[in-house]
Request: fold
Amino acid sequence: MKGKTHAGIGIITLICLADRMPGKFDYLGLVLVLVGSLLPDIDHPKSVINRYILPFDNKLTKVFVYFCAGVIILWYDYLNGGTYILKALAVTVMLIAISTHRNGLTHSAAGMIMFSFIAGYIGNSYGIPYLVYYFMIGYGMHLLCDMTTNQGIPLLYPFSKTKAKFPITFKTNSKLGAALENLIIVIGLALAVIKFPAIFN
Ligand SMILES: [Zn+2]
Reply:
């Protein structure tokens, strides 16, 4: 599934839930929904997020960059007395290095918990604890949407590598798949236009 489809679905979900959110339609919240929507595909060297992180969009660069980042974080953590959050971040980054697309941590419930934990910690340290809910909307919707594709996701990783998917799925690279994704984006835009005025009331 394309990055812009995930981003679109994240925004649609936020618009639909905005009335019930602690910060309503918060711009910082919107940024977090987008980050959450795009983050799971950090395991793909050509994904939207990696376009901004990796100097070259190939597998080897991805493994090298994330592995080195993990080592640097661990080293920094060691020099600064050690905190659990930096260790969690280092482990997460190293797991990103070794997982191939849709086969590891980032497309699992464990990955969502780990990243939410880190997002929650960052939100708390800036005195905005509810930001983690926005992040979880984006991340959760990404996982749900990937479950509608025929590849599925390893939801129970690392305990099981079985791919979880819905009973009815579609092929992302097929004509129908592309048409469905475009339809989702159009519906999203229409919903956004209808809902937008209410959000600012
Ligand atoms: Zn994905």
Observations:
- The chain has one domain: 3-61+101-199.
- Residues 175-199 form the longest helix (25 residues).
- The CA atoms of residues 21 and 133 lie 8 Å apart.
- DSSP finds eight helices and no strands in the chain.
